[in-house]
Design a protein that fits this description.
Elements lengths: L1 H17 L5 H5 L32 H5 L5 H7 L8 H14 L18 H15 L4 H13 L5 H6 L2 H8 L5 H19 L7 H5 L6 H12 L9 H9 L15 H9 L7 H14 L29 H11 L1
Helix pairs in contact: 5-15, 6-7, 6-12, 9-10, 13-14, 13-15
The protein binds a DNA duplex (10 and 10 nucleotides) through helix 10, helix 12 and helix 16.
Length: 328
DNA sequence: GTCCAGAGGA
DNA sequence: TCCTCCGGAC
């Protein structure tokens, strides 16, 4: 159960949040190498040099690493004001998730994951993260199981097996043809460049085919227990905008992309919430705060939500087109 | 038929 | 910025 891995993440988070100095205990909580990063962010995402989209935004090294241990760190980590009641909102969503009897994470990663060799565990995290995107949970689980049963959850094995076999085994995950091809390429890169392990930084993960910001951050958290940033998918993006938790700089307009949401959200959301917020909002977004016709009537936090009961169904470009067609 | 959901290519 | 990739739920 992913809960196990989440457990270890929680341990890390608590220690990171409460330590005031960098101790060996804290350091040992990271299974990964720590890469101090100072990133200048660009407006347009390019595969080679990227982290995010807000121009001029810089992260202090200690912030990126996950430590708020020196004097200036707190101010830096909190340079944007938190929206009112955000704690109550998260608490309310947590309660709803529990009563709906959902898994807190919304994702099941490898029951046997803890018995695996760390390198193999990380590769399987990367593989299942890739499969899970744009795919229902049970479908991902089935595909991952089949890969495992065939011994295909290591870089070495994937590199050797032919693409057609992978394709058949992972069917019917979303975009299985492309994913099979990407998986082969990724396995080869992991083998050649990383000795069968996976990359340990966001930048290097982003160089892998089929890995964008969403999966890169997810893999850093689940694979390396290293919270570099929030894993923002379409649910986190939508819900944060509905709640008014993020907006374009100096305006009240919604953020335009998940990447913009991620950077904006990271400016005020305390670090210990970065890892758990994705599974929490994904569950909430699938059941209650749905993209089309959200169930505000049964939502326990609607009183905190500026969009409650007035979310107009977002008109997609496709439906806009068909509306236009009908008019013509 | 429409929408979902991230990444990549035009 | 839009389109494409996929099966499947609705």
């Amino acid at each position: 159960m992913f809960g196990l891995s989440l457990g270890s993440i929680n341990v890390f988070l608590i220690s990171a949040a409460t330590k005031t100095t960098l101790t060996t205990t804290t350091r040992s909580c990271f299974s990964s190498k720590i890469h101090p990063v100072s990133v200048t962010v660009r407006k347009k995402r390019s595969k080679n040099s990227v982290l995010s989209q807000i121009e001029g935004q810089k992260f202090a090294t200690h912030e990126i690493e996950g430590f708020a241990y020196n004097k200036g760190a707190k101010e830096l980590a909190q340079h944007s004001e938190s929206p009112a009641y955000w704690k109550k909102v998260l608490e309310g969503i947590r309660k709803m998730s529990c009563s709906a009897d959902e898994t807190a994470d919304g994702r099941e990663f490898d029951k046997e994951a803890d018995t695996l060799d760390p390198k193999e565990r990380r590769f399987s995290v990367l593989a299942s993260s890739l499969l899970s995107s744009q795919t229902k949970e049970h479908v991902t689980d089935g595909a991952t199981q089949r890969l495992r049963q065939n011994g295909l959850l290591t870089a070495d094995a994937i590199d050797k097996v032919d693409e057609e076999t992978i394709k058949k085994l992972i069917y019917p995950v979303g975009f299985y043809t492309r994913k099979a091809s990407n998986l082969k390429k990724i396995a080869n890169i992991c083998l050649v460049k990383y000795g069968g392990d996976i990359p340990s930084t966001i930048e290097e993960l982003l160089l892998l085919p089929g890995v964008g910001p969403k999966i890169a951050h997810l893999v850093m958290i689940l694979g390396w227990n290293n919270v570099q940033g929030i894993c923002v998918d379409t649910h986190v993006h939508r819900i944060c905008n509905r709640l008014g938790w993020v907006s374009r700089s100096d305006t009240k307009q919604k953020t335009l992309t998940p990447e913009e949401t991620r950077v904006t959200l990271q400016q005020w959301l305390p670090r210990e919430e970065w890892a758990p917020i994705n599974p929490l909002l994904v569950g909430f977004g699938r059941t209650t705060c749905t993209p089309l016709r959200p169930h505000c009537g049964e939502c326990a936090i609607s009183r905190f939500c500026p969009s409650a009961f007035k979310v107009t169904p977002s008109t997609s470009s496709k439906s806009k087109k068909s509306i236009l067609k009908k008019k013509l």
